[in-house]
Amino acid sequence: MSNIKTQDIVRTLTVRGRTIDIELTTWKDSDGLSYDIYDQDTGECLTPESYDDEPDAVRVEELLSQLRDDLTGGTLAPFFEGAPLPEILFTPAELAAEVARYRRALEHLAERAGAMGFIHPPRLAEACLAVLAGEDITKPQPDVEATP
Question: What residue ranges of the chain have pLDDT lower than 50?
């Protein structure tokens, strides 16, 4: 049985060009309030831990900046496993620039790996870029013949 009394969208904001909903949860056994931040387009909850006070646009911007830093720094909380955060946190132009930056780094790594005798470094680079672009790489891929 749920302890939730009500859940309502109490505010809608536009931050970084995205529509953000602020949801208020009230509880049956408590006077406390919980506020969560949702991306309206994806329905993704962006708050791993609810706020006690209603967040404003500045607080949402701070959260998005922190999530972006965590995502690019590889320190994102497990709560966001499988979330479409690149789509939410980057504009299409910013995402393209990030992919281009990673492409250059991965191409350099592939060259070095190839020089060290690794067989398929370009496949690794392609897979990493596909993930950054939001593609599903869990589908079976055709085998590529190994080259020495």
Answer: 144, 146-148
Quick one: pLDDT at residue 147?
Answer: 47
User: Could you tell me whether strands 18-27 and 4-15 are parallel, antiparallel, or unpaired per DSSP bridges?
Assistant: antiparallel
The secondary structure element, H or E, covering residue 10 is strand 4-15
Quickly tell me which residue has 């320190």 as its tokens.
Answer: 75
Nearest to 2 by CA among 26, 36, 24: 26
> Which of these, 70, 97, 104, lies nearest to 85 by C-alpha position?
70
Domain boundaries, the chain: 4-85, 90-148
Tokens representing 85 are 């955060």
Distance (Å, whole) CA 40 – CA 52: 21
Task: Please report where in the chains the tokens 């055709």 appear, as a residue.
Answer: 142
How does pLDDT run across 81-100, given as a tens digit for each residue?
A: 888 888 888 888 888 887 78
> Considering Cα of 51, then 54, then 59, then 63, what sign does the dihedral take?
positive
φ, ψ (nearest 5 deg) of residue 33? -115, 150
Query: Reduced to 3 states, what is the DSSP secondary structure of residue 6?
Result: strand
